[in-house]
Write a structure and sequence with these properties.
By secondary structure, the chain is α/β, with parallel strands linked by helices. It has one domain: L-arginine/glycine Amidinotransferase, Chain A, CATH 3.75.10. The strands form 5 sheets. Strands 1-5-6-7 form a 4-stranded mixed sheet, with helices on both faces. A 4-stranded mixed sheet has the order 4-3-2-17. It starts with a strand and ends in a 5-residue tail after the last strand.
Length: 338
């Protein structure tokens, strides 16, 4: 069995998207977050060229989704059971195995026991069943947002997350590499240090550094005064510049302006990031947070994705739940003809 996780820029059969469905979790931000997710679904289905499969929990949420997306072609409402919308972490990772698409599921423990919600540990099974992809359940803890893939067996990750004792106690880098190799066909793991401050995922890499093409990695550069992650961004860029991928090629590092300081509502920096963009079939959707750097971030992404339309959409309400666009999506790939 030879497994490959395609780069996110490879063609998709569908894009899975979680819809905020629980008022007790989102409280006053429920309807604003639903509107932001609906806008994302509309962009993914339109210029993004995706078949959007919107996972909703409960009849009330389904009715809200239907009302917000009435008349939008390409969006399918799929009823499911989940704790919250972070499908990147709770859903399966899809792999190509020869001429077949398979789903790889993993143990989910609420980001190290922080947020354990009923139904989240069954999301991978639900999505795999709806997609028709055979599912393999792997016995170790892993969230999809902890990895970023180049399509050739290289992954980016952070030590803060994958070596955290709240995930797989006692694991070292060699054990992680072995586990990722067996489940996802990973040939080389590129280790970064810490992720963003106040990120309850313990430093998911999809807020910090992303492959935008084979051999090309984007990471933030700090913007404005009081950017609490400036040192993390610079250290990440420095380390990446000295790395090579699974093919032996040196990485090219591109910098994208960060949102700067975005208040979490209590005077602390929130884990806001323009790196949490989604690469769709025909577009790149970048989260914005009412930050003045977003125009420069979009311009930088346009230079990296000249064949796709780059769209900035607000994600402030979604951010109140702890993540953004990449965190709530999961792409389902297709087997490309040889």
């Amino acid at each position: 069995m030879s497994l490959t996780v395609p780069g996110e820029w490879a063609p998709h059969a569908a894009m899975w998207l979680g819809f905020p469905s629980h008022g007790d979790l989102w409280e006053d931000n429920l309807q604003p977050a639903q509107r932001e997710v609906a806008d994302l679904a509309r962009a993914l289905a339109g210029p993004g060229g995706e078949r959007v499969r919107l996972l909703v929990a409960g009849d009330e949420a389904a009715a809200s989704a239907a009302a917000l997306l009435h008349g939008v072609a390409g969006v399918e409402i799929v009823h499911g059971d989940f704790g919250d919308i972070w499908l990147r972490d709770t859903g399966p990772l899809f792999v190509i195995d020869g001429e077949a698409v398979r789903a790889q599921g993993f143990r989910f423990n609420g980001w190290g026991g922080k947020y354990v919600l009923e139904g989240d540990d069954k999301v991978a099974e639900q999505i795999a069943a709806a997609s028709g992809a055979p599912l393999t359940l792997n016995p170790f803890v892993l969230e999809g947002g902890a990895l970023d893939h180049d399509g050739f067996g290289t992954v980016l990750t952070t030590r803060q997350c994958l070596l955290n004792p709240n995930r797989n106690p006692g694991w070292d880098e060699a054990q992680v590499q072995s586990a990722l190799g067996g489940a996802l066909g990973v040939k080389k793991t590129l280790w970064l240090g810490d992720g963003l401050l106040n990120d309850h995922t313990d430093g998911h890499v999809d807020n910090l550094a992303r492959f935008v093409a084979p051999g090309v990695v984007a990471c933030p550069v700090s913007f404005g005064r009081g950017d609490a992650n400036a040192h993390v961004y610079d250290e990440t860029a420095r380390v990446l510049a000295g790395m090579t991928d699974a093919r032996g090629a040196a990485l090219q590092v591109m910098r994208i302006p960060s949102p700067g300081f975005i208040d979490d509502g209590e005077g602390r920096p929130s884990p806001a990031s323009h790196m949490n963009f989604v690469i769709a079939n025909g577009a790149v959707i970048c989260p914005t947070y009412e930050d003045v750097a977003c125009a420069w971030a979009i311009e930088a992404l346009e230079s990296l994705f000249p064949e796709r339309q780059v769209i900035g959409l607000p994600s402030k309400a979604i951010l109140s739940g702890g993540g953004s666009f990449h965190c709530i999506t999961q792409q389902e790939p297709v087997v490309e003809p040889r």
